[in-house]
Amino acid sequence: DTAVSQTPKYLVTQMGNDKSIKCEQNLGHDTMYWYKQDSKKFLKIMFSYNNKELIINETVPNRFSPKSPDKAHLNLHINSLELGDSAVYFCASSQGAGGPETQYFGPGTRLLVL
Amino acid sequence: GQNIDQPTEMTATEGAIVQINCTYQTSGFNGLFWYQQHAGEAPTFLSYNVLDGLEEKGRFSSFLSRSKGYSYLLLKELQMKDSASYLCAVNLYNTDKLIFGTGTRLQVFP
Q1: Is B65 at the interface with chain A, CB within 8 A?
Q2: B33 inside 8 A of chain A by CB
Q3: Separation between Cα atoms, residue B77 and residue B84, nearest integer Å
Q4: pLDDT in tens for each of the 114 residues of chain A?
Q5: Which residue of B has its CA nearest to A33?
């Protein structure tokens, strides 16, 4: 299936732990994103990469570090997890950058920090 | 700063028409997207407006007025499966950045 996929779908962990979320797209897109959706369903951009280059880096704690090994993959590593990090994290991709490209979202990773 | 407003919740009856409004004030504007998000699922693309006017796509239409900073999504012949959140998102000028509104949760009743 052509899609944006994320693993894991659910992640439950203790405060202070380090965890990673993986994202892959096989749509041949050049740009990938990470979004955070909080408990009030507000969806906010965190990062975007175009062809492995960081383009958008919103005001996100530096405990969050994205890594793009190639243009089809964008992973998110989170150090020293905090309670407030509990949210749904969505990966997305689009064809290009610098313009109004439709973004296609992955199924989301539900992170719960205890 | 960026500000995008949508009503939090709306209800409607199966078969009816509903209009979901979105007003925005952003620094730079390229166009406006509407996404649909069912509970527990990913947002999916519905429509994109860059010019003023109405874009029609089957039962869904979207309107934009750039001068008024206003858009709406019109859903006709409502079906139960249309119960979802509808997210308005502004694409900022010369970037691929989307700024999302808080979403409107629509419940369709029989």
Answers
A1: no
A2: yes
A3: 15
A4: 669 999 999 999 999 999 999 999 999 999 999 999 998 888 999 999 988 888 888 878 999 999 999 989 999 999 999 999 999 999 999 987 666 788 999 999 999 999
A5: B97
